[in-house]
Amino acid sequence: MECLTDKDMELIRKVTEDYIPFNTVLGLKVHAIESGKVSLRFDMKNELVGNFNAGMLHGGVISAVLDVAGGMSAFAGVLEKHAADSLEEKQKRFAKLGTIDIRIDYLRPGKGTSFLASGVILRTGNKVAVTRMELHNQENLLIAVGTGTYLVG
To answer: 0.90 cut: is pTM over it?
Structure first.
């Protein structure tokens, strides 16, 4: 497997932050991109609250953010596996990316002022990629974990 190029990392950032409107609603920003790993950060805001008495993240927000982290790490794995492809071919590959299955384990209430979600690739095949995801708050407390299976080809 090749390493991600600067252009590949910029493509992941643009896709995550600029091309997917729902990610803008969530306030997602790419924190780091490494080989087979993507991390995203976001701040708590009123629109993300599920439990208004306690001011906690909605479970659907947690699930969605972990899905994005898993999907972007799957995309990073695809870009590494197909490093020699043109930008156009890489964009076509992203168009095929989709969630097949996701499992989320909620470990703690989603309390915090800011959060970091990370996804790491476990395996990238020709058709399917498998990822592991985590969500931490600003105190590095583990809020939720997940595994995701993504169609990549």
So the answer is: yes
